[in-house]
Amino acid sequence: MIEPYLAFHGVTKRFGDLDVVAQPFSISVARNEFVVFLGPSGCGKTTLMRMIGGLETPSSGAICLEGLPVGGPDHRRGMVFQSYSSFPWLTVAENVLFGMRYRKDLTEQQKLARRDNYLELVGLYDFSDAYPNKVSGGMRQRVAIARTLAAGSDVMLMDEPFGALDAQRRERLQVELRAIQRRDAKTIVFVTHDVEEAVFLADRVIVFSKRPARVMADIDITERLGAERPLELRDSPEFFQLRNAVLRLLREAAGDEE
Amino acid sequence: MTDISETAPVTVPDPRTAATAPRPDPSSIWAFRGTLSRRAQIGIGVGTSVGLLLIWEAVARIGLVNTTFLPSPSTVLSSMLMMVQKQNLLQHAGISTLRVWVAFILAAVMAIPIGILMSSYRVVGAALEPIIDFIRYLPVPALVPLSIIWFGVGESTKLYLLWLGTFFQLVLLVADDMRRVPHEYIEIAHTLGANTRQTLRDVAFRAMLPGLVDNLRITLGWCWTYLIIAEIVAADSGIGFVIWTARRYMKTPEVMAGVVVIGVIGLVTDQLLRALHRRAFRYL
Ligand SMILES: Nc1ncnc2c1ncn2[C@@H]1O[C@H](COP(=O)(O)OP(=O)(O)OP(=O)(O)O)[C@@H](O)[C@H]1O
Ligand SMILES: [Mg+2]
User: What are the Low complexity biased-composition ranges (chain B) (predicted)?
Assistant: First the structure.
């Protein structure tokens, strides 16, 4: 059997006497897969993702990357947060460069070249010298994405990264992120509350129950919608149907709350 | 449903008395929470100050108050000039400033690392917080006798009193600045491969710096308060000494001149540090 790229092996998590994940949780994520975690508020999505990043440790079980249990955080698993995603005292370009600050295997030249490359990729080259407070919220999230890419993360962990953006910016960034993920061959674990966002971005949507988190559904989106996700896809009946199906699942998962 | 307007006449509100929310003229200087150009702000500030001085001068000249208690601004100014020439006022001011800065730097150099450690490691915080919180509430003047017993009346007593007044406050302020650094920044640094030392230096310290500089500026102001106490109690030099000596001979203009000198030094330092803050932290 081939070792999966990223895997949860019977993971549980407790905070004191609060069970976040009670039933041992196992899933595996393939290399270059875009996985979206969807679930009711407080069910433990962030916690699961932080465990991948090494920012929390499982109470039992293990999370493995390429067969090896993950330890503390390192640059192979990059995080993009919803807020405070970039450093305000560094310019856009310096923020991206900071992603490689602790990499000893790159020369200064290589770092600068990578910085410019990723600034270009996320469309921020013209804003290189701006400070984050002078650019829009969407641009700040792109700074964080470019920083994570430049750092050389193989796995990008994104916790509601577009949560604070208006609908239009959000759609644009979704298209861009999906394109970047395809082009740069990244594995992404993405948390959102927005069903449309989940279906549009994901190769696979995992729907969680209320806390303690259990997997309610594991839906292969690419099988149904294909890997290419142009903006027009949102208007297609297939997308609409799938969105509704996932929405129903999420309502069920939320259970008697509704 | 019948047409209401036929049975009950609709009253059209008189626009002059209509109870709508007031719509203030935004260009008025009285606009609630409005803005004011920098020039206008400076102009109004200077105008008010000059106006007050003029009133004060007039009151003193007309003789509405006893000038022994409230000499006119012009008298204060001329005694200040006299003091500069005959009493080495500038030298005393220099000595006081030096004392403030030495004690302040001493306090800062100790408070910054300790404050940072308190917020970085729970053990350090838990160990030091009760002690520091307690000492912080001791009024500095109450400690004067004790410090004279310990250090005599030399230079070290004054420095010690100033240090005492600022160090404990500053430690807690620094600890607060550090605590307020968003945890996301720390986690970003960790996921980029920074170790603890690198995270502290490159991210946490950098993130707290604007707040830290602001708190240093505020604490420096407190230093001046304690300086005067220290110099009144035990000194033969410095502005506090000058003021206290002048008081003994009821030379009110000289007392006031001394106070004004402190005010001016404080104002200038504060404005310089503010300007520095604006320049250094342009990204804010
Ligand atoms: N460090 C912690 N200590 C104690 N409890 C925690 C901690 N982190 C999270 N929790 C609790 O664990 C539960 C799951 O939190 P988590 O943030 O993972 O949920 P979530 O699915 O991301 O929620 P949301 O959709 O609102 O972001 C919540 O009840 C939360 O209060
Ligand atoms: Mg969350």
Answer: 7-22
* Secondary structure letter of residue A134 according to DSSP: G
pLDDT at B208 over 90: yes
Quick one: which of A218, A226, A227 has its CA closest to A178? Answer: A227
Counting ligands in written order, the one closest to the CA of A81 is 2
A160: closest CA among A253, A71, A79, A53? Answer: A79
Q: Count other Cβ atoms within 10 Å, centred on residue B49.
A: 10
Helix (H) or strand (E) holding B132: helix B122-136
Q: Nearest CA to A122 among A108, A136, A133, A106?
A: A136
pLDDT one-digit tens code per residue, B240-275: 999 999 999 989 999 999 999 999 999 999 999 999
Q: How far is the alpha carbon of B176 from chain A, nearest alpha carbon, in Å?
A: 19
Q: Tell me the C-alpha distance between A123 and B78, whole Å.
A: 65
CA nearest A170: which of A203, A142, A133, A144? A142
> Reduced to 3 states, what is the DSSP secondary structure of residue B1?
coil
Look up the domain containing B172 and give its range. 73-280
Superfamily covering domain A1-76+154-237+249-258: P-loop containing nucleotide triphosphate hydrolases (3.40.50.300)
Whether residues A79 and B182 touch (CB distance < 8 A) is answered with no
- Domain of B234, CATH number, reads 1.10.3720.10
Tens digits of residue pLDDT in B71-119: 999 999 999 999 999 999 999 999 999 999 999 999 999 999 999 999 9
Does residue A20's CB lie within 6 angstroms of at least one atom of ligand 1?
yes
pLDDT the model gives residue B1: 45
The pair of three-digit structure tokens given for residue A250, joined into one six-digit string: 């999420």
Q: How many residues make up chain A in this entry?
A: 258
In a domain, B135, yes or no: yes
- Which residue carries 């230079």 as its tokens? B155
Kindly report the nearest CA distance between residue A79 and chain B, in angstroms. 7
Tokens of B132: 């520091």
Atom in ligand 1 nearest the alpha carbon of residue A56: 1
Domain ranges of chain A: 1-76+154-237+249-258, 85-153
pTM of the model: 0.86
Beta carbon of A240 within 6 Å of any ligand 1 atom: no
Q: Apex CA A90: angle with CA A87 and CA A91, to 5°?
A: 115
Measured in degrees and rounded to the nearest 5, phi and psi for residue A218 equal -135, 100
